TrEMBL record:
Family: Belongs to the short-chain dehydrogenases/reductases (SDR) family.
Pfam families: adh_short
InterPro entries, per the entry: KR_dom, NAD(P)-bd_dom_sf, Sc_DH/Rdtase_CS, SDR_fam, SDR_oxidoreductase
Lineage of producing organism: Bacteria, Pseudomonadati, Bacteroidota, Chitinophagia, Chitinophagales
One GO molecular-function entry: oxidoreductase activity
Name recorded for this polypeptide: Short-chain dehydrogenase
Keywords associated with the record: Oxidoreductase
Span of domain Ketoreductase: 5-182
Amino acid sequence: MQTSKVWYITGASQGLGLSLVKQLLHAGYRVAATSRNAGLLQEATGIIDKTRFLPLTVNLTNPDSIDDSIRQTIAAFGRIDVVVNNAGYGMAGTVEEAREQDIRDIININVVAAIEVTKRILPLLREQRDGYIINIGSVAGFAGAPGWAVYSATKAALAAFSEVLALDVAEFGIRVTVIEPAGFRTGFLTENSLSYTAPRIAGYEAVRKTQERYLAMNGRQPGDPEKAAAIFIALAERPDPPLHLFLGEDAYLRAAQKINDMSAELEQWKQTTISADF
């Protein structure tokens, strides 16, 4: 079977992105997938089918590289229907110990790259008057944990981008969802996917204890990437996907608690809030 939809997925050589690519190809979709090394991506999928699978070596910090990957996708498949901005990594530690370049690097991949990919594909989706954009955020972007301030900031930015983008492009028939998972067994807590600096400054016990707990969870996270990938595919077939989708029970509980806390605080400070008006 070959379906008509074409998926373009960034950061597809491991974890959730790789699970998604494999399921899509198995189901007969056409897929363009980016990685820093297309050869390793090809090897990881174990699939050689040039009529349906286009592995691409892309530097997501280079707009010309992104443009070239989109041109190759259009040349191979003629269109793009679903965009998945999946590329990204984690950064844990205290803010005062974070290096400036490390902060800039994670913002460039987790936020700027997603915006640049979206910016370059939007004209195609707008002309088609149809399309679906999935941005992979994190529950940490809504309800963070100690030691993840910079990472949480990038995912909060991606969520805000998704919210306003959805308003901008609705008239063109383009749908947007930001996926906000909790812990999934994707290799996120491994060296290749996580920049981690253990606190060296005295104190910061909340950061230290949280990081120890998270790192001890590696390989035992409750989230199943195969189930997540199946959810993505099902969402893309719906005319009414959600704007926000939290994935995993922990994500649900953290988000629900945050909403309750915010609602209570909003009401507690209501008089102060409205007193600022003329």
